[in-house]
Amino acid sequence: MLNKDFMFGVSTSAFQIEGDDGTQGRGLSVWDTFCDIPGKIYAGHHGRLGVDHYNRYREDVGLLSDLGVDSYRFSVSWPRILPEGTGKINEKGLDFYDRLIDELLEKNIKPFLTLYHWDLPERLGEKGGFRNPDFPEWFADYTEILLKRYSDRVKHYITYNEPLCAVHASYHAGVFAPGLQLNVEQSMVALHHFLLGHGRAANLIRDYRKDSEVGIAMSVWDYYPKYNNPECIENARKAFFCKDTPTESIDMYMDPVYLGKYPDRFYEMFPRVADRITDEEMKIIGSGTNILCVNNYTGEPLDQNGKKIPPEIGAPKSPVYSYYDPNGLYWDVRFLAERYKLPVYITENGSASEDIVSLDGKVHDPNRVDYLKRNLAMMEKIIEDGIDLRGYFVWSLTDNFEWLSGYSVRFGLVHVDYGTMKRTPKDSFEFYKNYIKDFKDR
Ligand code: BGC
User: How far is CA 288 from CA 188, 208, 318, 441, in A?
Assistant: First the structure.
């Protein structure tokens, strides 16, 4: 049975949807400058287009209301609030999220606020971003501005979206903005500053709202045991949490936050970094957080020895994205809940395709409907198995700017015509709407 407070929702992020015509007082983010570099983003697409959510948020909240979701996960754009990253506030930016939150509450939809979904203010990027030891202070100051304004109405918070992308992909692999390729030791210093920023923010949130729920939306390696025996499960668990490359290893990101210390090998591999870490810092990192949040798109089976099993020919797959393997969803949630022993939210789950408006004026997306059916059935199994799952969020409400793929890949339950910004709910929108309703009526 579902808990009556179980949340069905959808997720979005600021840079992917808001758009900016240059009159809103928003500062640049590292993703704005990254989009300007030729060859980085598919066909030169740019995030400043977005889907004009900044102006059409009322229409979008109307869609959420029609969908019947309990909650809406969105992110605040740091450079919209603080164009320079610190200092002077852009009041128009603060007002925008005020209006959005009020509109949501009026429609009985709980705001689930992400503080940081990759759009670091460019000015702070120029000062080294996470490499700079001042980063935790910058992030705490920004967080406090939001809390002063919104914590009377917002109870649910995610500090960061996908630290693996924010740190590994952006500072070590260099594929995401700001595109740095630091060595591993430097990247671990950046990770430590980043986690300190999380800790500072999480503690502030708890100070402002005792009843708050605070987590980090993790992306993980969606490995799962192909066979249901203890050895296979144990090998999959090891592969899931622990990778040879520390910047890619989930335990390096999560153990400090949820268990209060880095994994043992961190102290052996990076003595110079470890020597400078104080007990006080570890205390800050390790407190304040009380929920687990996970983003999942796919699953990868591992054999008895923890080695990857290649997908079978014809295995269900999105036309432009990943395999439809809901076992990944199940084990993501289970592995995290077992290790860190907290309630879990699935904060992203979705599928991409190249949807078109058909001659009948509708958008038929049978693959996404199939994907959702498979994953929602798995969500029910997670609950039946007694895991404390508190919510499920689809990525995403509308089609949007899909980072390196620009606008070529569509994830929305609602189609967007990028010429006119017209919104057309897809078949998957109707499916999810009916599913939520039926589930609640059960
Ligand atoms: C991110 C989203 C992204 C989605 C689909 C997640 O990794 O949080 O921003 O659009 O995956 O790729």
Answer: 22, 12, 38, 35
